[in-house]
Amino acid sequence: MTKDMRRRGLLTFLWNQDADDFAPLVAYSNSTSPEETTALKVTEDAYQSSRFYTIRCTRKRLLLFSIVFLSLLVLSSLLTAAIFNHILLNTCTTPSCIAASGALRRSAESSAATLHRINPEIADDRPAPCDDFYEYVCAGWMENTVKRTKGPAEWNAIHETAFRAFDRIEHVLTQIMQSPPLLKELTNSQRDAVNTYQKCMADNVEDAAAVFAYVDKEVGGWITTATNDMRLEDVLVGSYRMNAISVFAIAAVVNPKDNTHAALTIEEAVPILGTVAHYAAPVEYDVDLLLAGKAGNPLLNILKTTGYEVAGMLGMEITKEFEIGLAHAILFDTKLARISPLLHGDSDMQMETTLGDLRQMAGSSFDFYHFLRGFMAVPSSLSTKIIVAPGRAWLYRLLDLLKTYDNPEGQTIIKDYIKFKQFIMLYIHSGKLTVHKSPEGLEILDLLYNGNTDRNVFCLKRVGMSNQLGLVSLLERFFGVRLQENIKYAKEIVEATRKEYIDTLRTSAVVDNRDRPAMIEKAENIRIRLGIPEASRDVMALNRESELMINESMPWTIFFPNVMGNIHFNKMSRVHEPLNPDEWPADTNPFNVNVHYNFESNSILFPILMMLDQFVDSTLPSFYSYGGVGVFVGHEMSHGFDFKGRLHGPTGLDQNLTVGETSRNYEEKQKCFQAQYKNLGEMRTEDAVLSENIADNIAIGVAHKAWRKNNDLGKTLLPGLGLDPEKAFFVAYAQNWCALSKATSGTHSVEKLRVLGPLQNSAAFSEAFSCPVGSFMNPAKKCSLW
Ligand SMILES: [Zn+2]
């Protein structure tokens, strides 16, 4: 029973007591028959006229008076206590509060604490909030979460949320697939999305050889069977057509100098092992050493095994010539990965050049003009501008590398490398063509890229890439009202947080007055988009997506890469047209579980999955969603003002945002965070890592302030948890960062630090949990930015 129910019960009992005093009289008159009433009436009349009656009546009046007086006294003191109680310690028992308790408990409660409630003999060994808030919130989650990925992929509350959302989407798709009338009602692009999903789910080819042989023919053979008359540039364009990006990536992305248009942009291609970090170990570039497994980087053995597996599927004979060809292809992958700016500590940012200049710089080693003509419906001129995103130093290293292969043998090696990567990507896109007991080559790569076992999740992610708009419009239709309400609520939160952020910029002493107007303007300009790309309601855009779904009779393994290739080519061919402002930038996907800030367009995107579960819920008290979406938006807005964001002006265009002392003040302030996070175990000191942590710190501050103005619970407690809303806000925040993995992901610190760092600096947190100054969660020295 809740306190509230207990109190109501007590009041009812009191009133009953009062009523009971008069019960005999009332009861009598109601329960007696007419004859009895008459008899009683006669006796009563005689009794009332006696003297004895008068005395008794006086006594009875006195007694009644005392009873009423005492009752009123008791009642009034009880009412006072109740009112007091209501103000100070009331527990909220609305369905919304009960649901909020459940949602917090799902992640926050440790199993030890649960057992303690069932059997108080068992110790509640959950750490105290002021000692380690991450453990306090996440210990239970870590014990209870069910990991749904295998292999090295990480697992955290965000992944868990994504999988929950995937389950719900799968449910919708299955319902549609089983109901012909429902299917009939869909629009073309919605039906395309269902078809792609169905195709992916149905395809379960055990033997990849047929598919590989098909591609083998398309790419003109591999290694010893390669026909050498194809130009390197054409082989590369061909692999792009099947969505395998090697040597370098080229795409049409928002032009930083004019964000109404796209620009052709060259970027690094992802190396075969997925990340450049895997190539950090120095390598002996010797074919024999590599074949003997002694090249220096043991991970290269995965690629060697992969090569043999592909050859096996193609029915190739393993000859010495093949082995040498394979080793050269692997060493090229290594050399390419090792020119990455990440391994050279380059400080230069992207450069702009022209197609003509690029062509001239590369000389005979690679014809960029010929290469680009393979993509473009509208032929490019030599003056076409090209942005080299990883910068000048990287470009020079790439051109130098290509020049060392500028001879027939070298060109063959690069071509073999491109095809090798294409086979691997086909395998990865297929999901599960073959299954071995202990993963080797290809299966290790599959784990590295896909990281999960659930075919439905694999397929949903793929449909999210190939049929982005169709799937979104389908979900909008089927999740209807609930999704709309969450999005509407998220919009309110986002605007309340933005307002708080702007107020902070308006008053901050860190901001130089000369910079203040531009910074406020930038914050006001940020376009914040929630869940649904506007283009998914645009018939033209939906039709265009449908047109890219060709050749439905193709097996999945070829169908999907083809569709993705089409999407890429389509974007490239429209590079000279104005951008559709309602299309989401190419580097974002509504099905990622990762909020994204785009520097060039000064926009923040919340993918649809984040509107379905965990981070915003319009039916729960406000602390819950401010601790989710509110914090996320505060974080992303902060990127607009970090070391990189300051290079983009108030609309996102390439220009310095600050001219005054703001940057210097900012850098001075960030030293405090640098020291704090080093103490917490973050050894990386790059600006990119620091800016993520600073963004977390700003975010919790502005989201909390915005929430306080929109706190819809007052001071009431949450049922069953004893948390007031102030405490609950921080629990809701922290539970979004619970994680099993202890590894860093990209430039972010480990999840634990994303809880500890910002909360150690938050005075509001220490106040909420009454953490003594000097306790771990409330150090005397606090860092702040704005
Ligand atoms: Zn970030």
Automatic annotation (TrEMBL):
Required cofactor(s): Zn(2+)
UniProt xrefs under PROSITE patterns: NEPRILYSIN
Keywords: Hydrolase, Metal-binding, Metalloprotease, Protease, Zinc
Xref: InterPro entries: MetalloPept_cat_dom_sf (IPR024079), Peptidase_M13 (IPR000718), Peptidase_M13_C (IPR018497), Peptidase_M13_dom_2 (IPR042089), Peptidase_M13_N (IPR008753)
MF-aspect GO terms: metal ion binding; metalloendopeptidase activity
One Pfam family matching this protein: Peptidase_M13_N
GO cellular component, one term: plasma membrane
Superkingdom of this protein's organism: Eukaryota
One GO term of the biological process aspect: protein processing
PANTHER family cross-referenced by the UniProt entry: PHOSPHATE-REGULATING NEUTRAL ENDOPEPTIDASE PHEX, ZINC METALLOPROTEASE FAMILY M13 NEPRILYSIN-RELATED
Record-stated family: Belongs to the peptidase M13 family.
Name by which UniProt lists this protein: Nep-26
Organism field: Pristionchus pacificus
